[in-house]
Each structure stands twice: as structure tokens, then as C-alpha cells.
Amino acid sequence: MVRIAVVEGDGIGHEVIPVARSVLGAVRPDFEFFDVEVGYGRWERTGSACDSGTIADLRSADAILFGAVTTPPDPGYRSVVLQIRHDLDLYANIRPVRGEGFNIVIVRENTEGLYSGIEWRESDRACTLRVISEKGSRRIARCACTLARQRRHLTIGNKANVLKSDVLFVDICRQEAERAGVPYETRYIDALCLDILMHPDRYDVIVTTNIFGDILSDTAGYLAGGLGMLPSANIGDRYAFFEPVHGSAPDIAGQNIANPIAAIRSGVMLLRHFDDTGNAAAVEEAVGKTLAKGIRTPDLGGTTGTREFGEAVLREL
Amino acid sequence: MVRIAVVEGDGIGHEVIPVARSVLGAVRPDFEFFDVEVGYGRWERTGSACDSGTIADLRSADAILFGAVTTPPDPGYRSVVLQIRHDLDLYANIRPVRGEGFNIVIVRENTEGLYSGIEWRESDRACTLRVISEKGSRRIARCACTLARQRRHLTIGNKANVLKSDVLFVDICRQEAERAGVPYETRYIDALCLDILMHPDRYDVIVTTNIFGDILSDTAGYLAGGLGMLPSANIGDRYAFFEPVHGSAPDIAGQNIANPIAAIRSGVMLLRHFDDTGNAAAVEEAVGKTLAKGIRTPDLGGTTGTREFGEAVLREL
Ligand SMILES: CC(C)[C@H](C(=O)O)[C@@H](O)C(=O)O
Ligand SMILES: CC(C)[C@H](C(=O)O)[C@@H](O)C(=O)O
């Protein structure tokens, strides 16, 4: 038995996650799914978006399949995703972006940088501390180098021409790349966001700090036809959490028009996490065949609904 | 007499700035140009990239035309552009991006945020302080609202779902937009970097903090065919500084292949700064006609050299 915690979350999480879950269930009858409620909806109802009991439930699972949660910029509210990433120490956010002629994996540091949570007000200014630690940089660099060694090379995305904290980050990444014998280059994040669009074929594994990875992966989403396509894995030494890169998209929620591919592909990453490459490939192929038949959700120019897309994928399996 | 300080800087600055200068000289015989040397080249030769005498020279000018400087991530070296932006208090970095069906102006706060320069090492970590002040936010918000009032609407690019410092930034921008009667919306910077690519026609004036503006403008450069096309103005209450968005590009320097359009267009922004809309339009038209004839530098798929492109523009004038 493999126990999978399922968090639909808010908005379109309630639509895309059931699709991903049924696809996983179809290939893995041994998966036992259990629901965990977190998010803004729960917060509105109960006053708590996620408590220590929830975190314990998530810890008890062999893996977590997560939808999306709504994060209002309400000073009293702390993003659930950030809390979970922190509490489960999910330090590596892995975001593959693939398309015609390119195959990129963005490896985003997921626990520090501008997400330190160290913030304060003083007189007329508000401050946020960007923290780059040697330990935090080294573990994400190692993770990226392990990937890059199985693939081609490494790009270190940074802004060391302005940020001394990135001088440290780049130093550590260089050390790890050299130790692993991985060819590498460094690129400033602004130039990298443009160059990944102009020459996606030039990139393979990209490692970068937290908020730069956040921005870079959305930007690269353009290459894949939008956020509806992009899966991600948040991995630590003990826990593994899979979620689409997109958010809860309240503007399109409840209409059965959200693209479930990002969620299904997050399920594929979950399968690979259990070394189940056979089923991972089968699901990927089923998605590919469905798209090839012209079955698409509206964001891809089609007219198929979220549920119906899921049913089409199940038929291909 | 209008006195224009000319800083070629490093790399392709030595190639594109002479072109922009000769175009400006052709339409404005009253411009008196004088050279100011700053940058990495000067630093290597004299040990100083820019000193108080240089800053005084720049201050003495009616406007500054700037190329690009090389910024190595050398701990002992501070970027000259950053020093000048700081010393001249050039708080608004204005970056227009135009193309088929869209006309966007990115208004980037240019003096604080992650560029505060407040950085330190402690035990195993390196810290950079992101500072958002009420005063700094208000003056950039006003600048953006003034622009937006003459145009259509305002988008406030931020990451207030994670950064409390951006809660302040968004608050102030809202206040100013409401006061000015400018329609506005807020967008998270990651989603904005993707959406500007997917739907550039939906954007008009975008105001954002320093490093987000840095990344967003390079990303948007994709829409305009790359950085070779993008001009910028760095404006304060007393000084005005015009530079292409691109860097010194050491990899292509000295080959007469750099695209001088960004530099020429920075000159156009300089002309508009002096309310010389007639000549500004004339130069823009000359660039357009040159491109329409198929005369292009290699980055745009052509074979024309930097100097030759400049000569072609001069012939159109
Ligand atoms: C929702 C938000 C807190 C989150 C982030 O900033 O990491 C999201 O943008 C992401 O990329 O997962
Ligand atoms: C060279 C660098 C310091 C600069 C910046 O980060 O502002 C550049 O990227 C820019 O956009 O003008």
C-alpha cells in the first residue's frame, strides 16, 4: 500500500486534482488516497488554513498530491504552500519545462532567499531580509548537480552583479558543479529570463534562488503554452509533494474549463519519484495522444472540459 | 547650448553610443557633447571606475547619454550604473516596449528594494536587505500615475502574497492611483512575466519595484525582438540619464555587429525629455524606414554592421 495525501485546496484545485487522482488510481490500484483539507476556503470556514494536525497528516503520507491554494495579501494570513514547504523542509522545487526542441529543468531553492519570513516595519519603511545560507545553497546545488550529471549541463541563475548574497550562492554552486564534474555557466537572472525565451535549446538544468526560480518558471511557462501545462515537485530529504505550477485561478474556477495537464503531469512526477517509470511513461503518452487528437481545454484553443479531458486520457490508458 | 554628457562605457558601448550621438547631432546642431569616461575599462587602467569628479561632470550636464558598463561580480567592485543612479537620485527607470499591437511602459523603482546596498555576512549566511520605503514608493507611484493618466491604465507588479514589504508598495500605489483617478489592477510578478508574453495588448503602464522591474523589462524584451531594441530613461527630480537596456556584451564587442537601435531610441527619449517631439518622431521614423528596407544588424537576421546601420538612419533623416 502506498498512501497518497490529496489536497485539492481552493479554486480550480477542486477540478484538476480529481482528474489527476483518477489517472493515478487507474495505473496504480495499490495507491490509497486520503483527503486533507487546507487553504483559504478552510480558513474562511474554520479560522485556520492548516494546523499542526494537518501537517502531521501530510507527514504520514508516502507522497502528497496538491492542487492550489488562494493566498490573499492579507497581513494576518500566511500562505499554506509556504508553510508546508517550510515545515516539511521541501528544499528543492523541481520544475520541468518541455517542448519542441527543448527540455529544461528548473531547480529552485525553496526554503530561503526572500522567502525567509524575516520581515519588519521601521519608521517609514518595510524590510524583508533575503537570506542565502551556505547549507541551503549547498543542498540545492547538489540536487541540481545530481540531475545535471544524468543530463547535460548546469546554468546558475543569479544576480551576483548586484547582490552579495548571490556571490555566496554562485560560489557554492560552482564548487558543487566542479566536484561533480558537471559543465556549468553562470547567467544573470534578468538576461536569463530573456535568453530562455530566445534560445530554450541552450538550457538544460538551471539552478537558482527562491524568487528568481518562481519568476523564471512562470516565464518559461510561455514556451510550453502557459501554466496549464507545468508540473512541479517539491522535494526534501524525507517528504515529497507534487503540485501544478499554476495557482487556484479563482477567475475560472467552477466552470470545468481549467486545464488538468499540469496536475496530471505532477502525478507523473509522483510516479517517477517511486521509480515507476513504466506507468509514468504510459500516462505521459496518454496525455500526448489525447492532445494529438485535438482534444484540448480552452486555454489551448479547444472546447473540451476539465473532466472530459480527464476521461479522454483514461480511455487512452 | 544644450550640454550632453556622453559615456560610452565598456564593450559595445563604444560602438552603439557613437551612432546614437551622430544621430542626435544631425537633428540638434545645438547639442554640445562632452565625453566622460567611466566603467570597468577605466577601473582596470586607473583603479577607479567613477569618482566624485566624474559625478560632478555628469551633474554639470543637461542630460546624460550612457552606453553600458561591464560589472564583474568582484566583491571589491561596485557597479557604476548603480552608483550613478544612486548619486544622481535617478529614481524612475522608464522602459518602453513597443511592437505590433502593444505599447507598454515599464516604470521601475530605481533606488531601493534589493538594490539597497545593505548587505552583510553572518556565520554561514549572506544577507541582503530589501527596503521599500513609503517615500520611495510614493514618488515612483506618482511618476507612473502621471504617465498612466495620459495613457490608459496602471498595473502594479508585486509579490505581496509573499513579501510584506510589497504590501506597503501596493498600498501606496493604490492610494496614488485612486488620487489620480487612474484605473489600476495588481498582478503578482511571476504571473505578470508570463502574462505580458501571452497578452501584451492587455498592458499599458506597469509600475514595480527595482529587481522585478529589472527582470520584467528583459522578459518583455522578447516581445520587441530582443534587447537590441529597448531604450530606457533614468529620471530624477534634477537629472536625466538615457541608456539602452542591454549591457556591454563583451562577447560581441569590437566586431561592429551590435544593434544600435536601443541606443538611438535612448536618444529619442532624450529628445522627448527636452520636449522636442518633432525631432524625436523624425528619428523614430528614420529607424522604422531603415528597418523596412531590410537593413538590419545580425541579431535581427540581417548582415548590416553597427556603423552602417547608423549611416543608413542618417540618410533617412
Ligand atoms: C503562491 C505563491 C506563494 C507561490 C510562490 O511564490 O512560491 C507560487 O507562485 C509558486 O510558484 O508556487
Ligand atoms: C547591470 C545591472 C547592475 C543593471 C541592473 O540590475 O539594474 C542592469 O541589469 C539594468 O537593467 O540596467
From TrEMBL, chains A, B:
SMART domains, sorted: Iso_dh
Which segments constitute the Isopropylmalate dehydrogenase-like domain? 3-313
UniProt lists the family membership as follows:
Belongs to the isocitrate and isopropylmalate dehydrogenases family.
Q: Which UniProt keywords apply?
A: Oxidoreductase
The yes or no answer to whether the keyword Oxidoreductase is present is yes
The organism's superkingdom is given as Archaea
Q: Does the keyword Chaperone apply?
A: no
- Name the PANTHER family for this protein: DECARBOXYLATING DEHYDROGENASES-ISOCITRATE, ISOPROPYLMALATE, TARTRATE, ISOCITRATE DEHYDROGENASE [NAD] SUBUNIT ALPHA, MITOCHONDRIAL
- What is the recorded name of this protein? Isocitrate/isopropylmalate dehydrogenase family protein
